[in-house]
Amino acid sequence: MGYIYKEEVIEWLKNHLDEERFEHSLGVAQTSVELAEKFGQDKEKAYTAGLLHDCAKRFSTKELIDIINKNLSVEECEMINPKTYHAPAGAYIAEKEFGITDKEILSAIRWHTIGKLNMTDFEKIIFIADKIEPRTRPQEYINYIKPALDKENGLDMALLQCYKGTIKSLVDRNLKICMSTIEIYNELLSKYED
Fold first, then answer.
1. pTM of the complete model
2. CA angle in degrees (0–180, nearest 5) for 59-64-68
């Protein structure tokens, strides 16, 4: 994965994120470790992905678009909401700024907002941890998702809850929905509907 110095990463994040986003990143790192332990994934990798998942969050929209246009290939659907640009750009920053080479970590950062079909358990863990970390997320939302983790197929059940909540929220706010969000929701629902 390339070695990272946690203290240096934490200092960088303190200097590049606002206080709430920094606290959120620490919370996602810790929650990622807890979920990795529960679901048999690498805890150190989970900590790293959780800590860095929002490393590009405070970049301007113009900076994010520049990073994406010059260095990355993204689907048109991913560009409908500027709030998600930080995910692909964050994977790029994690690799270039911090020397992360582990493809699983980079992919988890890359897909932590929109997700994708057939996510790995590791990717699901970072995605879910982003939604349920207790430092900045509303307890009501955590209570909506977290119990699903204890069910059979817990990661998928929690993921389904995440997508239900996300779709409702996007509709309520009259925002566009990426087609892959609908595809993932439909796939999960088909797989687990009664």
1. 0.94
2. 155
